[in-house]
User: Fold this.
Amino acid sequence: MAVISSKKDDFEATIQKSYDKMSELKAFDDTKAGVKGLYDSGITKVPQIFILPPKYRAKTCKTQFTFPVIDLQGIDEDPIKHKEIVDKVRDASKTWGFFQVVNHGIPISVLDKTLQGARQFFEQDDEVKKQYYTRDTGKKVIYTSNLDLYSPSVPAASWRDSMFCFMHPNPPSPQEFPTACGEILMDYSKDVMKLGFFLLELLSEGLGLHRSYLKDYMDCCYVSCLCHYYPSCPQPELTMGIRQHSDNNFITVLLQDDIGGLQVLHQNQWADVLPIPGALVVNIGDFLQLMSNDKYISLEHRAIANKDRSRISVACFFGENTFQSSKLYGPISELLSGDNPPKYRTTTVKDHTLYVHNRGLDGNSALSHYKI
Assistant:
């Protein structure tokens, strides 16, 4: 069997080299219909531009890990309860870099409407969506498929479409938002910002710092929203919804539907983040790992494709303006000592973003670029 597998891999590698990848990427991009357009056309095989080399594909793996779930109920009512929750947030951020929160204060009805609004946008007529299709990252609302589509370091396109928008401090006007989801995204972003800033306070306390330290450390906290749509895939074993990566921000708050597909690389094994009704997934980004000098970790994660159903997720990223901030960030001085020297050199959010964008999602941690 090993010999057969090797010959198959060699054959696929030959095919990868023999076709005009750039022409096919451009032809796909020019449709402005995204992966959803391919699915609607009735394809039964994944186009070559989406086929990953064998080493990048998802392999079935069963783990016995218990993913951290933190109940925020009563956190402001009892100092002892508050400390217990801070400890849980700290421990999860140190060992997993991920956790889910329940009883976070955002009504389930708002979460459901947000997912419904995002789905309505992606599933509306292509001609309506096309007016938002762009690769201009300077726009406040961007609908596209694979922002890194043309990056030479990317092994294959991912099976997803995306809509991106800045939500704070200068959100799009109501007229700039798509009708299908603009109002609900604006409402949801207000709720999730309160939660995100509160989580930053808990994370500050977990580091032994003043509650407002992390939020105050940033010149101006920017919040952006990224909605992903993963259409049903005829050959999910050949591609990926989103390849292995870490987030290049401070923290991410993710709303996912009930389909599942998010996986986290924990102790060198892929663990499923099973959907919990009403829960939100929180993860540490690269900059918080850098600032905490590895007290918190930014874990690699991915989304696998699904053959039977389409999946929706809505991620809100907390950090600096990725294209304008020039402030230098490095390990927080209050956390350093002779026994804990800085592990990273300083960088700006802008430079880090450009580095990640030019490199693409290649499955390796971007933080290694800054290691001392």
